[in-house]
Amino acid sequence: MLPLIGRLHRNNDVVVSIFGRLLVGATDIDIIKAHRYARRVADREMPLAQTLPVLKELGEMNLGTASIDVGRLATGFEKSGGTDLRAYLEEELAEVVGTHSETYPTDVVLYGFGRIGRLLARILIKREATYGGVRLRAVVVRKNGEDDLVKRASLLRRDSVHGAFDGTITVDKDNDVIWANGTKIQVIYSNSPAEVDYTAYGINDAVVVDNTGRWRDREGLSQHLESKGVARVVLTAPGKGDLLNVVYGINHDKITDDEKIITAASCTTNGITPVLKVLNDRYGVQHGHVETVHSFTNDQNLIDNFHKGSRRGRAAGLNMVLTETGAAKAVSKALPEFEGKLTGNAIRVPTPDVSMAVLNLTLDTEVDRDEVNNFLRKVSLHSNLRQQISYIHSPEVVSTDFVGTTHAGIVDGLATIASGNHLVVYVWYDNEFGYSNQVIRIVEEVAGARPQIYPRRLESTELK
User: Fold this and answer.
1) Residues 267, 379, 439, 442: which is the catalytic one?
2) Which of 58, 100, 334, 381 would bridge 64 by S-S if both were Cys, CB 3.0 to 4.6 A apart?
3) What digits encode the pLDDT tens for the residues 144-195?
4) Per the database record, which ranges form the Glyceraldehyde 3-phosphate dehydrogenase NAD(P) binding domain (predicted)?
């Protein structure tokens, strides 16, 4: 299976998965574990002998760029009762047979290189190797001393929360370049987003990802568009005014060529909006309250000191800090049907990453706990929101178990409470890495580089 997967990737730009678990770059153990994962789908372990014939047939087909779930293809063929696997696959993959063509990656620039910026860099480097649709070309920062380049490379190489960078990093001081797994990252020193000539570095029609949070309105972010070589701007924070706030998977279809500035909302909004959508579609939400238990962030003080925000001046590592959050109200920017239905607050706690949102909802109909959990489990496995929503049902999980998750949010099934038409759902989310993956999905959407996934995933309303 390993050489078959490798050839499909090299020759056809086909990425293979088993029920969403990517197998590109996988080991033999990874493949076996992915097949065991099928128990969540079909209540039984998927035999390797069931997917091997699918992989062999895919290797003989003239496929174009795609992300193909061989687990779903194998089970679909079994359920169809058919005897001609090749004919079944040609019908399921008709859109990508004979469509292979050369693709040209879109340039991406990171404006700012803090917590989110460095995680975006890690993801972009890995995505370029896997899909080739977008490529990280440069990072723009303010220079902080003679050792600035070395220190920034070191922070990319090692992370106290997310561990070591998977690969090699070297520094070219003479040319202000960081090399990461063969990717050339030009470090550009500038104090203004409007004064960088990206074309001087061979960068054209770039998507600039502003992760500084300094500008959140159209006027401020439009400064990026004044620089040569910039085509679009993505903000890693909630936008103000008339900017399009996007939660990928929910309203990314609203992105048009005319939208030059797009915002990726907040980590909490991304964590809760997909879950709220599917619950509202199925049961109807009258109103609710969202309480987030959120890891501390850089804008808080390590020890007690003056802070312009209420309570945030108190020591972040010693206190639970009650504060406000706009995430509940921001849901309506992606889902207008929630306008005026949600309230919210936040409690900052002394952990460096992974947060939790408690959704306390009043529904249109009475619900059963097991039925709700079963529905959310199916959403996480079969729906077109499976990259946004995950589900877990384990008595021992705690926050550190979700460090590094690529999902926007993970429903904790054991914590679900249902009483009449009252429902409480607990959603974990990696407010750094999970959110960063949502940002990258928007960047790829803007660049026209999102991989097409086959077989087609279902709408949550189609699940029984």
Assistant:
1) 267
2) 100
3) 999 999 999 999 999 999 999 999 999 999 999 999 999 999 999 999 999 9
4) 106-267
